[in-house]
Specification:
This protein has a single domain (about 5-254), classed as Alpha-Beta Barrel (TIM Barrel), CATH 3.20.20. The chain contains twelve helices and eight strands. It has helices spanning about 15-30, 45-55, 80-85, 95-100, 105-115, 130-135, 140-150, 155-160, 180-200, 200-205, 220-225, 240-254, and strands spanning about 5-10, 35-40, 60-65, 90, 120-125, 160-165, 205-210, 230-235. Strands 1-2-3-4-5-6-7-8 form an eight-stranded parallel beta barrel, surrounded by five helices. α1 runs parallel beside α12 (about 240-254) and α7 (about 140-150) packs across α9 (about 180-200). The longest helix is centred in the last third of the chain and has 20 residues, at about 180-200. The structure holds phosphoenolpyruvate (PEP). The site of phosphoenolpyruvate has 13 residues, from β8.
Length: about 250
Amino acid sequence: MRKPILAGNWKMNKTPAEAVEFVRALIPLVTPYPQVETVVCAPFVALPAVAAALKDVPIGVGAQNCHWADNGAYTGEVSPAMLKGLAGYVIIGHSERRQYFAETDEGVNKKIKATLAHGLVPIVCVGEDLTQNEAGITEPWVSGQVRAAFAGISADQARGVVVAYEPIWAIGTGKTATSEVANRICGAVVRGALAEIYGEEVAQAIRIQYGGSANEKNIGELMAMPDIDGALIGGASLKTDAFAAMVRITAETN
Ligand code: PEP
């Protein structure tokens, strides 16, 4: 049984003070649903304040990126070693990082290895853009990203990774993949690639989220799908009411 995981990706939003105000309001709304793993992925500068506000509260804290090295001459970067104690999760390879910051499959793979080495849970993003989707190459593209991301990662480590299937054309656009299509890519394509690498038992243990304009109106339908184990949520995660409603609906759906 895979525990559903909803992670809010705040992107470059919320000052430390706004972040604390947000999570204080969120606590009473989502803690009644311990059957859902709820995570907020805050900007780096807000992590200390958010981690302090959520101390002893069962809401996870995540970062949105990290470097693969422990330390060194990488101006402006933050290492997984520095995140320990502040975050339990790290989003890796989000399409905005791949698009605007030239992240490659190779870098994503190194970052996954580094976060795992430091006991952090990587939330690894894969997904096709509109051109790839319209060219009918979604399946080979996404399975190729999964293979590249997991290269050299052991079966035991893989069990602790979360994969987010995020069709890029659905991110922040208000367009969502239908729940059937999202389920097919999460199941046949992402889990299928994981099964080819690690075998069916390990693939069945790995959680796969959908991401792309998920909100309180469509989350019930998405979460009712057998291969969708949660969501990575951008816009709707910035509003306490919408995010909390998504946690409640997920709890009621599973
Ligand atoms: C995201 O940024 O990962 C995302 C899914 O954004 P949105 O929910 O706004 O589409």
